[in-house]
Design the sequence.
């Protein structure tokens, strides 16, 4: 009697991916806590310090296509372990940096490591859940969005008690160990027959390689929308630490549910929870109601939140509410766009393709120094207005241009595949 083949539990794989994402999230979302202490110690220009964050984002994103190719070829385990090692070394060097050059080099390593973890876990979820792409991508991205909420308080406390240098070193090591351990239990995606159900949104039967995808004009519209929304979100969210300081809000004591802490620490905890919690929800809803329909709503919501910061951002409650709303809306790009990419260009090369699309985040990071430049003198309204306009334009583009174009593209490719299958079936008779 033949033994039944065993398949890894895909939900366990999803949980392991979420843990990895939650652990690596500090590299991005915890950064704003370090800006002021570094500025106070070395008296470097804030724009020069924030350039290191741009460097981090650039290397986090622009190496992901290569890392995605590695996942498609070798599986997730070696790529994630490599990322864990690089990010640990990067944060240790951030804590040791005595010059801007050393800080920039450290952020190159951190970015490459974080990108390896992020790109692998995100692309891997698409492979394990071809029938629930939005939910899986959203849940995985939620780990990255909400993960920092778990550690932001201890990181902030360590910065205050032991200095930012110690915080970089200690949490860098902790992050690396946890991620590497999880990676040991993450094999290549292997699904039992019948799992590859057709999702409830229109999906391509044709599988495009990275090179083939790059030749499609529709990819570049998706890319432009990703860049637009990401640039607005990154310009705003990467600057909330300096914004709260310039507005005199960062150290105001705030009490919520019996817990009192400085406003910036409280706001960041709430922001990251909102950023993470909405990703699987919107991913699930996009599985049911369509990607572009959700984009219209959430990208428009980001624009509204950023305008709210213009009018009420100098008030403690106004800052906390609209900052949280901004995080809740802009983070959906990391569930909606990877799902859309797999829907449009197929599942076979999903990790590499999603990684290629993810470089849009690196492109958008180039605008972070612009945010600081626009806010020269402590007036952040210009930054918020620019970000709001970009988000609003992308909301309109995604619904009125991308939606009909993508449907025509997928339907044409599906007809081509079906015709080819019919011809092959006829010839075999």
Sequence:
């Amino acid at each position: 009697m033949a033994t039944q083949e065993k398949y890894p539990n895909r939900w366990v794989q999803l949980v392991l991916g979420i843990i990895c994402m939650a652990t690596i999230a500090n590299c991005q979302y915890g950064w704003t806590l370090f800006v002021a202490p570094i500025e106070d110690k070395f008296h470097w220009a804030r724009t020069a310090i924030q350039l290191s964050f741009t460097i981090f984002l650039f290397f986090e994103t622009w190496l992901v296509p290569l890392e995605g190719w590695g996942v498609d070829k070798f599986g997730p385990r070696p790529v994630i372990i490599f990322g864990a090692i690089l990010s640990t070394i990067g944060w240790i060097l951030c804590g040791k940096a005595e010059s801007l050059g050393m800080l920039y080099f450290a952020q190159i390593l951190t970015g490459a490591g974080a990108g390896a973890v992020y790109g692998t876990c995100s692309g891997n979820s698409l492979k394990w859940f071809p029938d629930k792409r939005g939910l899986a991508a959203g849940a995985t991205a939620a780990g990255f969005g909400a993960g920092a909420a778990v550690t932001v308080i201890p990181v902030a406390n360590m910065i205050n008690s032991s200095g930012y240098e110690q915080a970089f070193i200690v949490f860098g090591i902790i992050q690396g160990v946890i991620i590497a351990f999880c990676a040991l239990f993450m094999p290549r995606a292997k699904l039992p027959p019948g799992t590859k159900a057709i999702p409830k949104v229109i999906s391509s039967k044709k599988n495009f390689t990275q090179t083939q995808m790059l030749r499609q004009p529709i990819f570049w519209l998706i890319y432009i929308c990703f860049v637009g929304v990401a640039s607005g979100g990154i310009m705003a969210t990467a600057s909330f630490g300096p914004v709260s300081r310039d507005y005199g809000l960062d150290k105001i004591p705030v009490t919520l549910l019996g817990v009192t802490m400085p406003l910036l620490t409280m706001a960041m905890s709430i922001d990251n929870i909102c950023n993470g919690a909405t990703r699987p929800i919107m991913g699930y809803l996009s599985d049911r109601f369509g990607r572009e329909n959700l984009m219209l709503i959430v990208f428009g919501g980001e624009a509204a939140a950023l305008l709210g910061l213009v009018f009420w951002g100098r008030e403690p409650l106004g800052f906390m509410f609209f900052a949280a709303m901004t995080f809740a809306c802009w983070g959906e790009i990391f569930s909606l766009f990877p799902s859309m990419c797999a829907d449009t260009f197929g599942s076979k090369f999903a990790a590499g393709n999603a990684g290629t699309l993810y470089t849009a985040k690196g492109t958008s990071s180039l605008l972070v120094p612009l945010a600081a430049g626009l806010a020269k003198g402590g007036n952040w309204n210009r930054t918020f207005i620019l970000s709001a306009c970009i988000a609003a334009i992308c909301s309109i583009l995604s619904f009125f241009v991308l939606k009909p174009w993508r449907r025509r593209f997928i339907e044409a490719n599906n007809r081509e595949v079906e015709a080819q299958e019919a011809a092959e079936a006829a010839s075999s008779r």
The chain is about 80% helix and 0% strand. The two ends are 33 Å apart (CA to CA). The chain has a mean pLDDT of 86. The first helix runs from residue 10 to 24.
